[in-house]
Amino acid sequence: MMKSSTTLTVGEVAKRSGVAVSTLHFYESKGLISSWRTGGNQRRYPRGILRRIAIIRIAQRAGLSLTEIKEHLDKLPQKAISTKEWRELSQEWHNMLTERIHTLLQLRDHMEGCIGCGCLSLTDCPLRNPDDVLSQQGPGAQLLIDTHLTEDDDIEGE
Q1: Does the predicted TM-score (pTM) go above 0.70?
Q2: Of 33, 30, 24, which Cα lies nearest the Cα of 79?
Q3: What is the DSSP string of 18-71?
Q4: 36 contacts 44 by C-beta, under 8 angstroms
Q5: Whole-angstrom Cα distance, residue 94 to residue 61?
Q6: What per-residue string of b and e applies to 133-153 under the rule 16 or more CB within 10 Å gives b?
Q7: 49 and 12 Cβ atoms separated by less than 8 Å
Q8: pLDDT band at 148 (very low <50, low <70, confident <90, very high)
Q9: Which residue(s) pair with 8 in the sheet?
């Protein structure tokens, strides 16, 4: 247990971080942050939690899922994140975001050619089936076929 001058209540964390108390509870339930309880059963957080919450919010704004954020934060100690740790973490996210940006740009630039029918087996579909490689797997919309069904399965009561 830490001294009260080095800890924050849930209300203080909410006010300082700009995050609702319910969001803090949610983050805690997902294992993104942690607190401890006083003898009076009140949550207390170390001051370093503010930096961790800021990182969570930055990552969310960048489009990372809470699962992805947690995977990265789990590599770090629960104490305040150092400049070096932040640099390493941000480089990992930079690489991931660069890849996502590339994929989104590719999607944007090739979307005009897609007729949006869902078959995804057109011979000239640059999005999901370049050079009609899916035709080798059989007829129809290969990406939409449920691979768990067999011919013997009862489909919609037939």
Answers
A1: no
A2: 33
A3: T--HHHHHHHHHTTSS--EE-TTS-EEEETTHHHHHHHHHHHHHTT--HHHHHH
A4: yes
A5: 13
A6: ebeeeeeeebeeeeeeeeeee
A7: no
A8: very low
A9: 45
Please name every residue paired with 138 in a beta bridge, in sequence order, or none if there are none.
none
Q: What's the farthest any 2 CA atoms get from each other in the chain?
A: 70
Residues 6+ apart with CB under 8 A from 148: none
Place of tokens 């640059």: 126
Assess contact for 20 and 14: CB atoms under 8 A.
yes
Asked whether the beta carbons of 82 and 38 are under 8 A apart, the reply is no
CA distance 111 to 117: 12
Distances (CA, A) of 81 to 42, 48, 135: 24, 7, 50
State the pLDDT at residue 120: 52
Rounded distance between C-alpha atoms, residue 139 and residue 23, angstroms: 48
Q: Which of 17, 124, 144 is nearest to 133 (CA)?
A: 124
